[in-house]
Amino acid sequence: MSGTENKGTSRRAVLRGGLAAGAGLAVAGAARAEGTPDPLITEVQDWASSFGDPVDATPYGMPIRFESQVVRRNVEWLTESPVSSINFTPIHALEGTITPQGCAFERHHSGAIELSKPDYRLMIDGLVETPLVFTYEDLTRFPRETRTAFCECAANGGMEWGGAQLEGCQFTQGMIHNMEYVGVPLRLLLEEAGVKPEGKWVYAEGADASSNGRSMPLEKAMDDVLVAFYANGEALRKEHGYPVRLVVPGFEGNMWVKWLRRIGVYDQAVESREETSKYTDLMPDGRARKWTWVMDAKSVITSPSPQAPIYHGKGPLVITGLAWSGHGKVTRVDVSLDGGKNWQEAELTGEAQSKALTRFRLNIDWDGSELLLQSRAVDETGYVQPTKDALRAIRGTNSVYHNNGIQTWWVHENGEVENVEVA
Amino acid sequence: MSGTENKGTSRRAVLRGGLAAGAGLAVAGAARAEGTPDPLITEVQDWASSFGDPVDATPYGMPIRFESQVVRRNVEWLTESPVSSINFTPIHALEGTITPQGCAFERHHSGAIELSKPDYRLMIDGLVETPLVFTYEDLTRFPRETRTAFCECAANGGMEWGGAQLEGCQFTQGMIHNMEYVGVPLRLLLEEAGVKPEGKWVYAEGADASSNGRSMPLEKAMDDVLVAFYANGEALRKEHGYPVRLVVPGFEGNMWVKWLRRIGVYDQAVESREETSKYTDLMPDGRARKWTWVMDAKSVITSPSPQAPIYHGKGPLVITGLAWSGHGKVTRVDVSLDGGKNWQEAELTGEAQSKALTRFRLNIDWDGSELLLQSRAVDETGYVQPTKDALRAIRGTNSVYHNNGIQTWWVHENGEVENVEVA
């Protein structure tokens, strides 16, 4: 194990090795002999001597064809039916913190339904002074808030309870996305209906056939939950709950009810199927942890990773990944090159937001030897992301939920990367 | 003129007028008589009793068909050719601050070219110690930064110099977008090449046939300029410069060179076509203001606006819009309902970021009478967005560039909205 830190120092010495330079302007990279002219520099190319696409070519654009591999992917054997299944965000190929809606993971319990704004209704009933039904237009008349938040499936990393079973950062940790939402605080709608003093729990239910329903304490509903219409600036996509979904910052994704149709106010939790037989954590003694809503601090290195190997050989290498916490802001991420023996602090870049994805990066000078890459997040509560073994020691391996253990990538000398565990 | 503020107070009294409520749970809105059952609530709908789309339906998704009107649009008579033209972001239909790449405005000088990563080269030459050529892969080995920034065409609002000529918020002010970028600071590449002491200007040039080229002072190039690969988490789209564009926070969009192929370092500005015959501001005395790179503080109400009229009649109304400044953070936005006679402070929501779009909102209780809506941005330098007439008094009307004057929307009693000017 090796690879030494080169944070903040000039990379010139190293890049000069690969970048032939001088009066003749030869090209970078190992494939070209120094001094050989590069036609991509010395000759006029087709794209520099003809017209490209006009401005009316694509009223709404899609990614360029060269990026066609950057898509959601699913694993057929994971679930019985594709209408009650999951796919995965290609986090290994993304950067920054925003997840485009087009490739943000989906989890459906009975498929993604098509529901128009005119057909949309939201009912608030139960222990309220005045039961209410809102049309979509009604909702647009309430004060709005903007909030960026991560949505993580409780089962993200769930296969890792049993060891390194899936190859690829997308499949092991890609049940997560991060978007900028705009919506009405649920608090305002509840205040409109008037919650009775005995109302202590809120039950949110979707309009799809599964009627996916989840309970949450009234305190959370009155805190930072949004009845959201927009994500990343535009309307929610169909698969993300168009026209209205619940945004429950820091809480597991199953509670972010899509195609939201009802908010019931009760004196106790509903204990629905989705919070009893599912989304509870079966412990070694046969009892279940329940109400494990808040997603604990976690991180993962997205590149290099099994789907994002090192192609360029030794020398300067950007190690980058994502960190998040359902309890607030990520305050620190450490990276290990040797399977957790030694750690160095990564740089957090961009605006660190509470309950939202944070990007970290560590720049190293890779000497070409094997690495056991790990990352470890710390949040503002002081919580430190644990190892998988530390989690298993308490929780066992019965559950597929809430595995926020440290992920290990084994980088080989040839730059390929494998999902492994270290003892 | 009227319409009174209702910021922060309960909307219950007003909404109760429109929202029939009670034991029978009748539906909201004027179209249904109070007490009449709404089948959308009382009957099981198709979408609640059948499967929706599976998770393998759309590896990369697009907006739902109901939002097909939220697209970039161009105005054919504005330019001679669609390969050297502009289209407009549908800002009237967006919310929050992020602009999806798919509907973010485009400006091309010879069309959007298709350039693959293997074919990509970036040359740094001129007054440097060591001229260099970088492949795409070389660039990915340098330290990266994340930065959200607005990109505004210098001609945004340009038709407004001659008065209210275009209908719709999209067409008057939609040459703007705001994305989260990831890239290498240009500073690091220049340091790699080694800028000679006499190098004072940087010239950036694109790989398209127009070779769109612009000069900027070395100080800016060494400050916050990014050589960017990612926008909103994913690769740049073709029309936004895939695989590499320049991000020049706060500066006019023409300088954000797409398909970036060369950075030249010189002792003076190049004075290219794009910074002499174009992108200079012709004053009344025939002289031209030049080097007017920084986009001054500006704002616009996106809804209600001509393409986003008020459908719901009087009562609670969310007035929302965008504000920005090339000089830093927006610190305040005021809204007038009476054409600038009286102003009230709007709420700024989300994270206010320097040189990035900021969302503002004002919640009012509309009495149904006519409004002359205006917004006025103030930035951290203390600069106050001027009226169009104040700008014209100094700059005349020869130019199509740098009109950051206050926009007025005339809201009629029926909720329709017109682009007008007030004396």
UniProtKB/TrEMBL annotation, chains A, B:
GO BP annotations, alphabetical order: sulfur compound metabolic process
Positions of the Moybdenum cofactor oxidoreductase dimerisation domain: 289-407
Ranges of residues in domain Oxidoreductase molybdopterin-binding: 116-271
Gene3D superfamilies given in the database record: 2.60.40.650, Oxidoreductase, molybdopterin-binding domain (3.90.420.10)
Essential cofactor(s): Mo-molybdopterin
UniProt entry tagged with the keyword Metal-binding: yes
InterPro entries xrefs: Ig_E-set (IPR014756), MoCF_OxRdtse_dimer (IPR005066), Mopterin_OxRdtase_euk (IPR008335), OxRdtase_Mopterin-bd_dom (IPR000572), OxRdtase_Mopterin-bd_sf (IPR036374), Sulfite_DH_SoxC (IPR030835), TAT_signal (IPR006311)
Name of the protein this chain belongs to: Sulfur dehydrogenase subunit SoxC
Organism in which the protein naturally occurs: Albidovulum denitrificans
Source organism phylogeny: Bacteria, Pseudomonadati, Pseudomonadota, Alphaproteobacteria, Rhodobacterales
